[in-house]
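Input/output pair, single chain:
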Amino acid sequence: MSLTMTPPPLTARSAGRAHRPALAAAAALGVCVVVNVIDPNVEGSLGTCPFKWVTGGLDCPGCGTLRATRALTRGDLTLAMDHNLLTVALLPLLLWGLVGWWRFERGRSPVRPTIAPRLGVAIAAAVPIWWLLRNLPMFEWFASSAA
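Output:
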């Protein structure tokens, strides 16, 4: 009896598309490298946020995501949550989806990764609520803090 497991052969489906999740992961890794080389905490280093420029400084739901990414890649979870709590909260879901996508495309999982409808509705509702709360004076601690 052998304990070694051989992966299933690539199917016609997976042979042509198995590289897509790897490319997405490589792009994400590239973003992590860029935000560690070009510090987004330095004013103007990665450009000016068009939303902040147009609105006079209001945060959009994604404001602080690059700085949160930099903090996460440096192991500072507290600082990452200070920059953008929603990004940090949704990161495990994003990683789960990437791994599920990769397994599906490689033919190792017969089920395509999906989000439960209730979870999708919850995320869709959370984004505008997050956007509103982080711009209200009484919730300024949700705002994207500077370095």
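DSSP finds seven helices and no strands in the chain. The chain has a mean pLDDT of 83.
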